[in-house]
Design brief:
Radius of gyration: 47 Å
Number of strands: 29
Distance between the termini: 50 Å
Helix content: 40-55%
Shape: elongated
Length: 813
């Protein structure tokens, strides 16, 4: 039987990129490209999300890792911003400061200032403090002020002296002496012009003592009134001194504050802060009466701060929270470690006297605050892995404000001296990057997700293989070479990279957009080019990089092939065997995937159990593989049991398989083994099989076709290529063929063959060399065809089984 019609032509085994497509000496002649290639859907979505100013139109960028989503979105956003600046568009950015809150010191207040003015305002307040301390220090240390203070004190003391002399004279006239004791003034009776002793007093007659006590009580009232008068004099003097101090302070301070009030009159919060600061100065003039405050000998901080825990000049400190003085256009912040502090800001603390203290100067901005008025890019996976970040991020987006909170409190722990800073109002565009599955899960289970991330930018891991995209690939390689400081590619090197990109996605009509892998190729190919002292990276260097990387990772593959070659794993690559076929599987080990042949056997016998999956019975079969085996029964019943019951038991087994089997790509091979056993016709062991099957007998495409073909090719190569060996694949997989050059060359030389089939009938003809046979008008198949033999065998089995049960019934068993 002629099988040439089923052979795949050599030109369809691999697509080769023509270096002549690239009309340049090297990629250094091209303008570097660092943005999207062939991602029109994602580009339009990002552009739409950037231009939508309404709330909730944040962007979720979905796609596989390694496609360069984050870096490319960042570069795209920055380019769009530059284009807007070129068109003359202006951006409203502010600086933000945290200021001392005079009403609630534990709740610092936040204020905005025009872009670039926060540092200047901080310096103005620092200069203001220095001028106030210097001016008030000079005023309060002047001779005139000291003389006026001394005069007031002396006047009060003189008046108080007169009052005390008067009450003392009156007491003496009534027989008492006024003495000052630790417990206060005391009136002591006199005897012979001296204070009476206690024994003398107790020796007096009771009537005399009562008279003395009555006079003493009367004098005590007058004494109390005199002391109250003296206290009032002292209070009035102190008030006069305070008024003098306040007048001096008002005179000195008002001029210093006047310029600041005028300069910041358009910013109400700043004006209110200056008003409160001025009142604070006038209410606390004592701290300004000395130009310098001595430091504590042990702690090294001012004594007032060491004793009270707060710096009396703390209200003069301005915390420049967000400084946009050097920012051009909206900020674009990429936060690679989105923990709670890095996202929303931190409350730092200092250790003092066995405890921790904090104030408004120790508040640090997070990514959301820094990105205010612009864009922040985050990895969704990292956001979800950091405790508390996702709920806080949703609150910040919905409320339009960033609240600095202590993580200790977020997790139910006690935070020492917690501050409650005023939230910072923000207007930001959040761009999350993650895979499509994560997007679907959030859409289903997080009711807030749809409201705040209304734009999905879907990055495809594959792009169309058009001339435009291939030229863009060359420009992208140019940018990567500059970024990696590597040699540039010549046209042959670019063509080889593009070819291998098509192999990565296993599609002759598409290219990979996982550009992180491409950067790895560039660095490794550059290494081999440097070993050759080559000027440019050529196709041979790219090929060398690919082969060397494969060699570093394929130890397990080689060990398995060695076991096959030694016969430990039994695989026949020649001869014919009934009910036995070589199926093909793919081992994916994370860093590498490779194909391996597996012997599949089928045994058919009388019974009604149908197709028995030994892997399933031993719990080594996955659900998809189970489904594939069940389809076999459907096909057999549809094909052969229209006029008789399907009286069959068949066991299927992956020989020497000691781990789970999953997938349906071996279902066609299993069906060939069953048909071979039923028809009693051998299958060619030199042809391995892959492909799934449906109930109509159509062979369906599978994944990993290149690895499967190459895996069996390596086994046959080790055993010796005979020219009769090959692989049978589904016809729909032809566009997925991107085989290695050595396989293509072997096919070209006629030492290896690739067959394709669209139906089970075509496949069984290739494997047996016997016609499958088409059903005739009378419902039968032509004699000596595979379908005829299977049909007759099933008919015979049904008759025997019926006879067996009839005899059994007669015997009463």
């Amino acid at each position: 039987m002629d099988l040439k019609k089923h052979e795949v032509p050599v030109e369809k085994l691999r697509w080769e990129c023509d270096p002549k497509l690239f009309d340049f000496e090297c990629t250094g002649d091209l303008a570097p490209l660092r943005e999207f290639i062939g991602q029109d859907r994602a580009t339009r979505a990002v552009e739409f999300g950037m231009n939508m100013a309404d709330r909730g139109y944040n962007i979720y960028v979905a796609g596989l890792t390694g496609t360069g989503k984050t870096s490319m979105v960042k570069a795209y956003i920055e380019r769009v911003i530059k284009e807007r600046e070129t068109r003359g568009q202006t951006f409203d950015l502010n600086d933000w400061c945290y200021l001392y809150n005079f009403r609630e010191p534990d709740s610092p207040q936040i204020a905005s200032l025009p872009q670039g003015q926060a540092k200047a305002f901080r310096d103005e307040i620092t200069d203001l403090l220095n001028k106030i301390r210097h001016g008030l220090g000079q005023a309060f240390s002047s001779d005139e002020y000291k003389h006026q203070k001394q005069k007031t004190v002396e006047e009060v003391q003189a008046q108080q002296q007169k009052i005390f002399q008067k009450i003392s004279g009156e007491a003496r006239s009534q027989g008492f002496v006024l003495q000052m004791t630790p417990s206060g003034p005391a009136l002591i009776p006199m005897k012979e012009d001296r204070p009476m002793q206690e024994q003398e007093y107790l020796a007096l007659e009771e009537d005399v003592r009562k008279q003395i006590e009555a006079r003493q009580a009367e004098l005590r009232k007058k004494l109390q009134a005199s002391f109250e008068t003296a206290g009032e004099l002292q209070t009035k003097a102190l008030e006069r001194m305070q008024k003098v101090d306040k007048d001096i302070g008002e005179y000195t301070v008002s001029g210093l504050f006047k310029h600041l009030f005028e300069h910041h009159s358009d910013w109400p919060k700043v004006t209110q802060y200056l008003t409160d600061l001025k009142a604070y100065v006038l209410d606390n003039l004592e701290i300004f009466k000395s130009t310098e405050e001595p430091a504590h000998p042990l702690l090294g901080v001012p004594v007032s701060q060491a004793m009270s825990g707060r710096d009396p000049f703390l209200p003069f400190q301005v915390n420049v929270f967000v400084d946009n003085s050097a920012t051009k256009g909206p900020p674009v912040v990429l936060e690679s470690n989105p923990n709670f502090g890095n996202m929303f800001g931190k409350i730092e603390r200092r250790f003092l006297l066995g405890g921790y203290l904090s104030d408004h100067t120790m508040l640090k901005a997070g990514a959301l605050s820094k990105a205010n008025g612009g864009y922040v890019l985050l990895s969704m996976k990292d956001v979800l892995m950091n405790p508390g970040v996702w709920p806080a991020l949703k609150r910040a987006i919905k409320n339009g404000e960033v609240r600095i909170e202590d993580p200790f409190e977020q997790f139910g722990l006690i935070a020492p001296q917690g501050l409650r800073p005023e939230p910072m109002p923000v207007k930001i565009k959040v761009v999350l990057t993650g895979d499509a599955l994560l997007y679907q899960m959030l859409s289903i289970y997080d009711e807030d997700f749809w409201e705040i991330f209304k734009v999905k930018a879907d990055f495809d891991s594959q792009i169309e293989k058009t001339e435009e995209n291939m030229l863009a690939y060359a420009a992208f390689l140019s940018g990567c070479c500059e970024e990696c400081q590597a040699r540039h590619f010549d046209p042959s090197g670019v063509a080889k990279v593009v070819e291998y990109s098509a192999r990565i996605v296993a599609d002759q009509e598409r290219l990979s957009s996982r550009f992180a892998q491409i950067k790895d190729w560039i660095e490794e190919a550059n290494y081999w080019a440097s070993r050759d002292n080559a000027r440019f990276i050529s196709a041979s260097h790219v090929q060398k990089a690919i082969e060397e990387k494969l060699f570093r990772h394929n130890l397990i593959e080689e060990r398995i092939r060695d076991m096959i070659d030694r016969g430990t794993i039994m695989i026949d690559a020649e001869g014919d065997v009934v009910g036995q076929v070589n199926g093909l599987t793919v081992y994916a080990l994370g860093d590498i995937s490779f194909g391996k042949p597996s012997r599949i056997t089928a045994k058919t016998f009388l019974g009604r159990s149908g197709v028995i999956n030994i892997e399933r019975e031993s719990q080594l079969s996955g659900p998809i593989h189970n489904k594939g085996v069940m389809i076999l029964s459907g096909y057999l019943g549809w094909k052969y049991a229209q006029d008789k019951p399907l009286s069959l038991s068949a066991s299927l087994c992956f020989e020497q398989s000691y781990e789970g089997v999953e997938g349906d790509s071996a279902s066609s091979a299993e069906l060939y083994a069953v048909l071979s056993s039923l028809a009693d016709r051998p299958l060619k062991q030199g042809i391995a099989v892959t492909g799934s099957v449906n109930q109509k007998g159509e062979i369906q495409p599978i994944g990993g076709v290149n690895q499967k073909i190459e895996g069996f090719f390596k086994v046959c190569q080790a055993k010796g290529l005979s020219g009769d060996q090959g692989v049978l694949i589904p016809r729909q997989n032809l566009r997925n063929l991107m085989l290695r050059e050595e396989v293509v060359e072997a096919v070209r030389q006629g030492r290896f063959r690739i067959y394709s089939a669209g139906t089970i009938d075509e496949g069984v003809e290739i494997l047996t060399g016997v016609p499958a046979g088409e059903k005739q008008e009378d419902g039968t198949y032509p004699e000596n065809t595979i379908n005829y033999l299977v049909d007759k065998r099933l008919e015979e089995m049904a008759r025997r089984l019926k006879s067996f049960y009839a005899d059994e019934k007669k015997e009463g068993r």
